C-alpha cells in the first residue's frame, strides 16, 4: 500500500536534500510535485488541495527556509499534514481499534457492499477479540439473501474457535439480530458481531435493512468494510453509508493489493469516520490497528518499527526463540534451527510487508524485488530442509552430490537451490561463530565490520579488519 506515492514523494524529498539551502521557489516547486503525486495516487481532489495548502502555509516561512536543515523541516511538515489527513493529530485522541467500552454483550454491526470482505473480516475480528482481548464472542450472520452466507460464517466461527448463532431458516435479518442479542445476554457473551447482508451496489432496500437492524440492536460500533482496491469508489461507498446509516469506523480490506492508497488518505476527510482496522490477505490473523502516524511514516520512507515489533511479539514463540538464542550462543546452530527461523518469519506475513516497515527500505525496492524475496522462497527452503534426514540436518557437511540430487527431487527444487540454501546456512553459521568468539566487548569495538568475512569491505571502501 502507498508504494507508488511513497516512491514519488521520496524522490521529491531527495532532490530537496541535495539542494541544501532552500528558496521559496524551491518549496513551491516541491509542493507542485507533491500535489501531482497525491493526485496520481487517487487521493480525492479536495483532500489534495487542503493538504498542500496546509503544507504551503507552514513551509513557506522564515523559520523553515533559514533553518539549519530546511529540507528536513519541510519533510516533517508534510508528515504532520499526512497524519492529520489520515485522522491523527491532536484533534484525534480516540482509541484505535474497536471500542468495547460498553455494557456486555457489546453489539458490533458489520456493514458494507457484497465482495468487500465483510464476512471474512467479521471472522478476523472475532479471532482478534478472542486471542488478544480474551473476549467471549458470538458471530451471527444476518445475510438471508446470499446463498450459503450463514454457513460461511458458521464455518469461519469454527476455524477461529468462537460460537456462531444457530441457523433458523425463514427468519428475517431483524429477527436474527434480536435472537443473537438475546442469546448474548443469556449466555454472558462479551461481544456479539452482527454480519449484515451486502449488495453489489448501494440501494434503498439495503439501507433500510441496515437502518432497521441498527435501530433495534443499538450497536456500540458500526463498522463499514470497504475494499481498498476499488479506490475512490470505496470513498463514495463510505460517504453514502455515513450519510444514510451512520458509521463509527471503517475497516479497509485488501490493502496489500492497493499500491496507490488514495482511498485511505481521502477516507477521514470525506466521511468524518476514522479508519480503525486494516486487512491484508486472506489469513484470519491478517488484521492490524490503523495508526495514522505509523502509516505516514511508511509513506515517507521512515518505516514503522513499532508495528514490526508488535507483529513479532504476537506471532513469534518466545520460549522457542529463547532456546534458539541459547543454542546459537553455544555455536550449536543447526539446519533444524534455520528451518524454525524460516517458519517464524513466515508467520509474520509477507516479506515485502515486513521489509516495508523498515526505515529507508523504499530506496532498495528494486534490489529487493530483483532478489525475489517472497514467502514462496521461504516455503521452498523449508521444503528442502524437510527432505533431509535428521542426520543431514544436524551435520550438513555430509551432504554431497548424490544427497543433493535426492534432496532436490524430494523437495521439488533444483540442486542449485539446495546449494544456495547450504551456502546461506554456512554464512549464517560463520557469523554466529564470530559473534561467539568476539563476545559483547569485541562486537562493541569492531561493530558491523567485526562480523563480515575477511576480504569484504564496508561501505566507503573501509576494511573491516
TrEMBL record:
Membrane topology listed for this record: Peripheral membrane protein
Enzymatic class: hydrolase
One Pfam family per UniProt: SRP_SPB
A single MF term (Gene Ontology): 7S RNA binding
EC number: 3.6.5.4
CDD domains membership: SRP_G
Localisation per UniProt entry: Cell inner membrane; Cytoplasm
This protein's record includes keyword Ribonucleoprotein: yes
Domain SRP54-type proteins GTP-binding: 274-287
Ribonucleoprotein listed as a keyword: yes
Residues where GTP binds: 112-119, 195-199, 253-256
Record's GO cellular component terms: plasma membrane; signal recognition particle
Catalytic reaction(s) noted: GTP + H2O = GDP + phosphate + H(+)
Biological process, per Gene Ontology: SRP-dependent cotranslational protein targeting to membrane
Keywords: Cytoplasm, GTP-binding, Hydrolase, Nucleotide-binding, Ribonucleoprotein, RNA-binding, Signal recognition particle
Principal subcellular localisation of the protein: membrane
Protein family (similarity comment): Belongs to the GTP-binding SRP family. SRP54 subfamily.
PANTHER family: SIGNAL RECOGNITION PARTICLE 54K PROTEIN SRP54, SIGNAL RECOGNITION PARTICLE SUBUNIT SRP54
Domain notes: Composed of three domains: the N-terminal N domain, which is responsible for interactions with the ribosome, the central G domain, which binds GTP, and the C-terminal M domain, which binds the RNA and the signal sequence of the RNC.
Function: Involved in targeting and insertion of nascent membrane proteins into the cytoplasmic membrane. Binds to the hydrophobic signal sequence of the ribosome-nascent chain (RNC) as it emerges from the ribosomes. The SRP-RNC complex is then targeted to the cytoplasmic membrane where it interacts with the SRP receptor FtsY. Interaction with FtsY leads to the transfer of the RNC complex to the Sec translocase for insertion into the membrane, the hydrolysis of GTP by both Ffh and FtsY, and the dissociation of the SRP-FtsY complex into the individual components.
SUBUNIT field: Part of the signal recognition particle protein translocation system, which is composed of SRP and FtsY. SRP is a ribonucleoprotein composed of Ffh and a 4.5S RNA molecule.
Name recorded for this polypeptide: Signal recognition particle protein
Protein species of origin: Roseicella aerolata
